[in-house]
Write a structure and sequence with these properties.
By secondary structure, this protein is an alpha/beta fold. It has eleven helices and 17 strands. The chain has one domain: L-arginine/glycine Amidinotransferase, Chain A, CATH 3.75.10. Helix 10 links the parallel strand 15 and strand 16. Helix 2 packs across helix 3. The mean pLDDT is 97.
Length: 336
């Protein structure tokens, strides 16, 4: 029996998207974040050729979504319950078991206990039920943003997150984590990176640092500007990747893409802004932008890697105030 996590560039039946719904969490950034997600959802449905399933919590958020999106073709509003929009982490990871669509769910502890919100631990079950996929529950903590997959059983991750004692205290080394990922997701090889981005409250999710874009091809950032706070982290990741092989035994090709550079919050502290948080849709790539000169360079680089898809940059500064971006609010539902 063959268990796999399809690569993100594989065909999707739908793309699940979280809609910012809680004024107490987003405060003055709520309306701007809702606008960014609405624009993203419309672009996904149109240029991305996706069936978008927009998960919304509460009547006020439903009203806002209707106002921003209307009856746009391809965007389905789905009422549900969640603490916040980060479906990449709270939702299931879809798998194929001999061509049968299934959904893997994991324990969720609020990114190591930092943000424990009501109903986040029920999101995976809600999405699996709505998609008609059998839910397979696993008794360890992992978030979807901590892993990236190539469709052949190769997984990218970071030690900072996956081996963090605030997740699974009994994982005292890489072997325990690899065994768990093999059983739950069919992982055949795990490629370990070190630290994630500075000030990333997820403890270094890999989807802000490095992503598969094709079999045997990985992208990671190169620092933009002399004051980029993640320059050494990017270079360390690139060195580790350049010496790695995938599950097929093929040496990885590493492509460097400009980072956004130094992006700071209202207090002047670095934010975990990343062009790596792009979403691979059925016929487009949607990349977050942060009003920097590096965005056009990163978009051009991605277009060269995805010549068959349209590469689109969309603003994500309001989403960033919540700690994430487009990849963080999505979860693809693959075609069986």
């Amino acid at each position: 029996m063959s268990l796999t996590v399809p690569a993100e560039w594989s065909a999707h039946a739908a793309m699940w998207v979280g809609f910012p719904s809680h004024a107490d969490l987003w405060a003055e950034d709520l309306e701007a974040a809702q606008q960014e997600v609405a624009d993203f959802a419309l672009a996904l449905a149109d240029a991305g050729s996706e069936r978008v399933r927009l998960l919304i919590c509460g009547e006020a958020a439903e009203k806002s979504a209707r106002s921003l999106i209307g009856d746009a073709s391809g965007v389905e509003r789905v009422r549900g319950f969640f603490g916040d929009v980060w479906l990449r982490d709270t939702g299931p990871i879809f798998t194929l078991q001999d061509s049968e669509l299934q959904a893997a769910s994991f324990l969720f502890n609020g990114w190591g206990g930092k943000y424990v919100l009501a109903d986040d631990d029920t999101v995976a079950e809600q999405i699996a039920s709505a998609s008609g996929a059998m839910l397979n529950r696993h008794g360890f903590v992992v978030e979807g943003g901590a892993l990236d997959h190539d469709g052949f059983g190769t997984v990218l991750t970071t030690r900072q997150c996956l081996l963090n004692p605030n997740r699974n205290r009994d994982w005292t080394g890489e072997a325990a984590a690899e065994a768990a990922l093999s059983e739950a997701l069919g992982a055949r090889r795990v490629i370990w990176l070190g630290e994630g981005l500075v000030k990333d409250h997820t403890d270094g999710h890999v989807d802000n640092l490095a992503r598969f874009v094709a079999p045997g091809v990985v992208v990671c950032p190169v620092a933009f500007g002399a004051d980029d706070p993640n320059a050494e982290i990017y270079d360390e990741a690139a060195r580790a990747l350049s010496g790695a092989k995938d599950a097929r035994g093929v040496a990885l090709q590493v492509v460097r893409i400009p980072s956004p550079g130094r992006i700071v919050d209202a207090d002047g502290a670095p934010c975990p802004a990343s062009h790596m948080n792009f979403v691979i849709a059925n016929s487009a790539i949607l990349m977050p932008t942060y009003e920097t000169e590096a965005a056009s360079l990163a978009l051009d680089a991605l277009q060269g890697l995805f010549p068959e898809r349209r590469v689109i940059g969309l603003p994500a500064k309001a989403l960033l105030t919540g700690g994430g971006s487009f990849h963080c609010i999505t979860q693809q539902e693959p075609l069986p």
